[in-house]
Automatic annotation (TrEMBL):
<dbReference type="GO" id="GO:0006782">
    <property type="term" value="P:protoporphyrinogen IX biosynthetic process"/>
</dbReference>
<comment type="pathway">
    <text>Porphyrin-containing compound metabolism; protoporphyrin-IX biosynthesis; coproporphyrinogen-III from 5-aminolevulinate: step 3/4.</text>
</comment>
<keyword id="KW-0627">Porphyrin biosynthesis</keyword>
<dbReference type="GO" id="GO:0004852">
    <property type="term" value="F:uroporphyrinogen-III synthase activity"/>
</dbReference>
<keyword id="KW-0456">Lyase</keyword>
<dbReference type="GO" id="GO:0006780">
    <property type="term" value="P:uroporphyrinogen III biosynthetic process"/>
</dbReference>
<comment type="similarity">
    <text>Belongs to the uroporphyrinogen-III synthase family.</text>
</comment>
<feature type="domain" description="Tetrapyrrole biosynthesis uroporphyrinogen III synthase">
    <location>
        <begin position="58"/>
        <end position="281"/>
    </location>
</feature>
<dbReference type="InterPro" id="IPR036108">
    <property type="entry name" value="4pyrrol_syn_uPrphyn_synt_sf"/>
</dbReference>
<feature type="compositionally biased region" description="Low complexity">
    <location>
        <begin position="1"/>
        <end position="10"/>
    </location>
</feature>
<feature type="region of interest" description="Disordered">
    <location>
        <begin position="1"/>
        <end position="23"/>
    </location>
</feature>
<dbReference type="InterPro" id="IPR003754">
    <property type="entry name" value="4pyrrol_synth_uPrphyn_synth"/>
</dbReference>
<dbReference type="Pfam" id="PF02602">
    <property type="entry name" value="HEM4"/>
</dbReference>
<comment type="function">
    <text>Catalyzes cyclization of the linear tetrapyrrole, hydroxymethylbilane, to the macrocyclic uroporphyrinogen III.</text>
</comment>
<protein>
    <recommendedName>
        <fullName>Uroporphyrinogen-III synthase</fullName>
        <ecNumber>4.2.1.75</ecNumber>
    </recommendedName>
</protein>
<dbReference type="InterPro" id="IPR039793">
    <property type="entry name" value="UROS/Hem4"/>
</dbReference>
């Protein structure tokens, strides 16, 4: 488990894009389909879960086992990237030694393009168990065409770039379908003699508007759980007008945790190994510290 204390919250610029939010299990539909909180959760929310719509169910269920009340507030949504339409043609017309997939969303987008290309034979390297699970059903049905053949010792792009095996060929060609906002860690493979083709197959759009009661509840929660630097930045933009927000951020892994520290957040928690279990433990640790501070005698 990692924890850091640093500077005060910065004041980000206004957000762009659109999305709506809802508290988990307590919604009603208002005018124009807008989701609104119909009543205050009882007890109030302990944690805000911020993954895009439809992807927080496992985290919410895991937290419920610990009697943790969640407020679901999607902060980003995924949209097509500039290279989305290119992916099937690239897969049809070229051969790669490895396809590198570093997130569940990248996996889902890749599978669509791979099927559109006629399901050519590919060998895939993945970062993280969650990413690998996206391929489970396909690899079981058609294991001869799609093989998940490698994952690094730690679920981080820079570790994959240092550990990815290569054959004896003079060149080793890698296709890297990724978010347009992903870092360039994977492209460090070039230093090891790999030839890397990157396609920006999707990108993220931050939240723009949240129903005021939902935002008020979110700001009051002691912990906000984020799974990506994009979601983290969306949260900071969303609360840019809130005064003295100093609660905790619980990150899915080190990459997002490091981004939170660089952005000046004071209380940052993340597991040493990315994944759902470690993320839940980080949230629980943040809540334990919050309760200890709340119960400590005032001087």
């Amino acid at each position: 488990m990692a924890f850091s204390s640093s500077l005060a919250l910065p004041s980000p610029s206004p957000p762009s894009g659109t999305f709506r939010a809802r508290p988990a299990g307590r919604i009603r539909t208002g005018a124009a389909g807008r989701f609104q909180a119909c009543s205050l959760p009882s007890p109030p929310p302990d944690v805000v879960v911020t993954r895009e719509r439809g992807k927080s169910a496992k985290l919410i269920a895991a937290l419920e086992k610990h009697n943790i009340q969640s407020l679901e507030l999607p902060l980003i949504e995924h949209v097509d990237g500039p290279d989305t339409d290119r992916l099937p043609d690239v897969l049809r017309n070229d051969k790669f030694d490895w396809i590198i997939i570093t997130s569940p969303e990248a996996a889902a987008v890749f599978l669509k393009g791979w099927m559109a290309a006629g399901s050519p034979k590919v060998r895939v390297a993945v970062v993280g168990a969650g990413t690998a699970r996206v391929f489970d059903e396909v690899s079981q049905l058609d294991h001869q065409s799609l093989e998940v053949a490698f994952s690094p010792s730690k679920a981080m792009g820079k570790i994959l770039a240092s550990e990815l095996p290569r054959g004896s060929e003079s060149t080793c060609k890698v296709l890297y379908p990724a978010s347009a906002k992903a870092s360039h860690e994977i492209q460090g493979l070039s230093d090891r003699g790999f030839y890397v083709t990157r396609l920006n197959t999707y990108t993220t759009v931050p939240v723009e508007d949240v129903e005021p009661l939902t935002l008020k509840l979110a700001i009051s929660a002691p912990v906000v759980a984020v799974a990506s630097p994009s979601a983290l930045k969306a949260w900071l933009k969303l609360i840019s007008k809130a005064n003295n927000w100093d609660n905790s951020i619980a990150c899915i892994g080190e990459t997002t945790g490091s981004a939170a520290k660089k952005l000046g957040l004071k209380s940052v928690y993340y597991p040493t190994t990315p994944g759902l279990e470690g993320w839940v433990e980080s949230i629980l640790e943040a809540l334990r510290v919050h309760r200890q501070l709340k119960e400590a005698p005032k001087c």
